[in-house]
Every structure is written in structure tokens, then in C-alpha cells.
Amino acid sequence: MQRTIGLAVWIAAAVVLASCGSHSSPGSDPQASSTSAAPAVTANGPAATSQYDGGPRAADTPIDESKIAQGQQLFQTKGCSACHTFGQKLTGPDLAGVTHRRTAAWMEHQILHPEIMTKEDPISHELFAKFALQMPNQGLTPEEAAAVVEFFKHKDHEAAESASKGE
Ligand code: HEC
């Protein structure tokens, strides 16, 4: 008997608490809808997958031929070639096949904000752990980064063409 009363009191208390809770959070709070639109990567840690890695690989998108020469020149003059080449690992990752591994957006973010990417992006962080080196920010503009990506696409396309000719 004691037990039943105790339980009833407990349930009553829970109901009161629950209704209090609903009064303090009205559904029409304008803040509620703006916070739900927050970006996927939060201060709580990296997301399980990269937010920039969705969609087709860069190699599966058309090449803008008009940007290849500029991209190649930037690759030489902006210091990239000191750490990267194609078909060999230097202090940075081997870039042969990079456009089959990544999206254009992911590479552009890596080129424009390497210091943020290694901290917040799971793919970049993994590379950082493997190479034990932070890629420096080389100060490219978004247009320049896009041109470098076109050059990478061209390199991978050339490699695929010569491989098929060799057969
Ligand atoms: C000091 C050496 C260094 C320089 C200079 C450098 N990188 Fe990197 N790069 C790295 C390292 C190391 C990583 C792996 C991520 C990290 O640890 O920062 C990387 C990662 C990358 C990736 C991703 C590779 C993959 O396998 O996904 C791309 C693309 C890239 N760099 C392009 C560039 C371009 C373009 C430039 C010139 C604007 C450049 N890097 C300059 C060292 C360098």
C-alpha cells in the first residue's frame, strides 16, 4: 500500500515537472529554427565524414581547359612542388590520382585553408596524422585554387590516356 502511494506521488510530481518544462520552451521561439540550420562541423569535434567530400570525384567532372596552364604555373610558383609531385611521395602526399580520391570542393578547401582543414576535416586530419606535417597556407585566391584543381584533373586525365594507349 505504501509503495502504491509513493509511486502515485512520484508520477504526479513527474507530470508537474513535465508541464513546467513545456511552459518554459514555447514552440514559436525564433532562435530554435536558426540554430537547426547550423553547419555540420561543430566545436564538439569532427563530423564522421567530410562535409566537402560529397558528390562526384573531381576527375568525373568536365575539365576547364582554359585554366590548366595557369594552374600548372601556380603549382610551380606557389611552392606546391616543393612538397608534392605526381607518382611519388615527397614530404606531402603523392598527387597522382588525387582527383579520383577527392571532390573539387574538398581540394579547394585544403588549398585555401589547410590550417583549418587539418583540425576540422576528418580526411585532412588523417593525412596530417600520417605525414606529421602541416601543409602551409600559400595565400592563393579561390580562383587560383580552382585553376590548380583543373591542372590536377588534367594530370590525372593524361595519366589515364597514356595508360590506355600503352595496352
Ligand atoms: C610544406 C609542404 C607543403 C606545401 C608547400 C604544400 N603542401 Fe599540400 N600537403 C602537404 C601535406 C603534409 C598534406 C597533408 C595534409 C597536412 O598534413 O597538412 C598536403 C595535402 C595536400 C592535398 C591533399 C592530398 C590528398 O591526397 O588528398 C592537396 C590537394 C594539396 N596538398 C595541394 C597543395 C597545393 C596546390 C599546394 C600549393 C598551393 C600545396 N599543397 C603546398 C604539404 C604541403
Description:
The chain has 167 residues and is an all-alpha fold. The chain has a domain at 58-166: Cytochrome Bc1 Complex, Chain D, domain 2, CATH 1.10.760.10. 59% of the residues lie in helices and 0% in strands. It is built from nine helices and no strands. The chain has helices at 2-24, 30-35, 68-77, 80-83, 98-101, 104-112, 114-120, 122-131, 142-166. It is globular and about 40 Å long. Mean pLDDT is 82; it is low at 13-48. The structure holds heme C. Heme C binds at residues 78-80, 82-84, 91-93, 98, 101-102, 107, 110-111, 114, 118, 124, 127-128, 131, 133-136, 138, 140, 148.
What labels describe this entry?
Cytochrome Bc1 Complex, Chain D, domain 2, 9 helices, mainly alpha, binds heme C, single chain, globular, 59% helix, 167 residues
Secondary structure category? mainly alpha
In terms of quaternary structure, the protein is single chain
In CATH terms, the superfamily of the domain at 58-166 is Cytochrome c-like domain
CA gyration radius, whole angstroms: 26 Å
Compute the number of helices. 9
How many angstroms separate the termini? 88 Å
Helix content: 55-70%
Strand content: under 5%
